[in-house]
Design goal:
Pfam family, one: SpoIIE
Oligomer: single chain
Radius of gyration: 27 Å
CATH topology of the largest domain: Phosphatase 2c, domain 1
GO molecular function: phosphatase activity
Keywords: Hydrolase, Membrane, Transmembrane, Transmembrane helix
CATH class of the largest domain: Alpha Beta
Organism: Streptomyces kanasensis
Protein name: PPM-type phosphatase domain-containing protein
Distance between the termini: 33 Å
Strand order of the largest sheet: 1-2-11-10-7-8
Number of strands: 12
Structural class: alpha+beta
CATH architecture of the largest domain: 4-Layer Sandwich
Shape: elongated
């Protein structure tokens, strides 16, 4: 989690507490006056009242001025942080090729603008593609990894015909970023810095116009399907997190049951299911999602319901970042059984009408 204000460059070499200098200096002047000035030692009340009033008025004016300057600087810092968040973790479009979409991030650190969770949804020639992930880094390294993975996804999602090829592009982008960080850190990084051990959990989804759902999972929690009820969309054993180990030659892209009209997929990071209340009980995510099953609800309504329940469960005190993405199918697909993509391969296949959607 990043606190942008803690890393803000100093403007023109000015100290961060420069606005407080005038009131502090005025307080020093008042102290010297009271201790050394002959007028301050006069016993007549009018003189002492007049000098005290002058020092008080001027001191209050200086403190208020410093307070206003600090408020303006804080607003500017918040504006910079919000602008960075809009670019890095931009708002999801409300509609994509017949799908309704919504997403939100809940930072664990109060006042932080950007955390280690990431998500994106884009419409491509191969269908709507969605990513959600969680960087296991800290500080600026986590933010850089988020930027590297999301930047690669936004480009490669339009170019790679299969999820396998897309995942390999993400892996190369993460490797480049980690390698640059290690080089920048010099001998310390090579000896085992946090950057050298950075990895990301990633869940990739392909949602086709006919309702087919293809999924490739690297150490991330499985999403939930919300329809008549709520159930995990588990499709086999996930791969290790991206960056922890090299990717295997064959990637297990899975084809799951088609998303029916009004059904939705609820994607989340592990901060949701691992959130605890004051008694140490985990957040009952599946039970909360069951409350919104049945008649179709908008993705924004589902997120609002789960967010409200999560904050009530934890008393508003999150110990980890949390991200939610909901995708509801407003099209009319037909059902199909959940099965692995033929051959469990990631070789390229034909465009949208393919049966083996991933690529080396």
């Amino acid at each position: 989690m990043i606190r942008w204000w803690s890393r803000r460059p100093r403007a023109r070499g000015r100290a961060p507490l420069a606005p407080l200098a005038p009131p502090v200096l005025w307080a020093a002047v008042a102290l010297v006056w009271e201790m050394a000035s002959p007028l301050a030692r006069r016993a007549d009340t009018p003189t002492r009242v007049a000098t005290s009033a002058v020092f008080c008025v001027v001191g209050v004016a200086l403190v208020l001025g410093a307070f206003q300057r600090l408020r303006r600087e804080l607003r500017q810092v918040h504006a910079v942080a919000e602008a960075a968040q809009q670019v890095l973790l931009r708002p999801l479009p409300h509609h994509l090729d017949g799908l309704s979409v919504a997403g939100v991030q809940l930072p664990a650190v109060r006042g932080a603008a950007v955390g280690g969770d990431l998500y994106e949804a884009v419409a491509t020639p191969y269908g709507v593609r969605v990513i959600i992930g969680d960087v296991r880094g800290h500080g600026l390294a986590a933010l850089g990894a988020v930027a590297a993975v999301l930047g690669s996804f936004r480009e490669a999602a339009h170019e790679e015909p299969g999820l396998g090829g897309l995942l390999r592009r993400l892996e190369r982008a993460l490797q480049r970023y980690v390698g640059e960080r290690v080089r920048d850190e010099g001998a310390l990084g090579a000896a085992g810095s946090p950057s050298a051990e950075e990895f990301v959990t990633v869940l990739l989804l392909d949602l086709h116009p006919n309702g087919d759902v293809l999924v490739l999972n690297c150490g991330h929690p499985w999403p939930y399907r919300i329809g008549d009820g709520a159930e995990p969309l588990a499709a086999g054993e996930p791969l290790p997190p991206l960056g922890a180990f090299p990717l295997p030659d064959t990637l297990p892209v899975r084809r799951c049951a088609r998303l029916l009209p009004g059904e939705a997929l609820f994607l989340h990071t592990d901060g949701a299911e691992e959130a605890r209340d004051a008694a140490g009980r985990f957040f009952p995510l599946e039970a909360v999602l069951a409350d919104v099953a049945g008649p179709p609800r908008s993705p924004a309504d589902v997120i609002h319901h789960v967010r409200t329940a999560l904050l009530a469960h934890t008393g508003g005190r999150l110990t980890d970042d949390v991200a939610f993405v909901v995708v509801r199918d407003d099209r009319v697909p037909a059902a199909a059984p959940c099965a692995p993509v033929s051959g469990h391969t990631d070789r390229p296949g034909p465009r949208p009408a393919r049966t083996a959607p991933s690529s080396r």
